Amino acid sequence: MPKEAVFSRNDHSHWVWSVRFNTFHDQLILSSSSDCKVLLTCAGSVSSEAAASDALNEERKRVLSDGLLQTFDQHEDSVYCVEWSNVDPWIFASLSYDGRVLISKVPKQYKYQIIF
């Protein structure tokens, strides 16, 4: 039970409505906000991969540093929900107040940095 936040960001300019971590690659975090944006953030320093101490992880240095990776700003209204796909760990959906649903992917550059 931490007494303070283990990871904190203030990249959104308005209220945050939803935050989801990727269950397969838990360093990837999505957040949605009233600023009409979905943000893809890396939290590698607090991920399960950072906590593991086997030889493979010591050999493989974490390439992605903590912070904002990508801003998705295709919505025209507040984005109330983001969810990762249960089938593909690189796909997610976002839902805005006006009923628009967008299906997006983690950009290839970040995907390849994580898996290689």
TrEMBL record:
Family (UniProt): Belongs to the WD repeat EIPR1 family.
Top-level taxonomy: Eukaryota, Metazoa, Ecdysozoa, Arthropoda, Hexapoda
Gene expressing this chain: TSSC1
Protein name: Protein TSSC1
Biological process, per Gene Ontology: protein ubiquitination
SUPFAM superfamilies: WD40 repeat-like (SSF50978)
Species assigned in the record: Ceratitis capitata
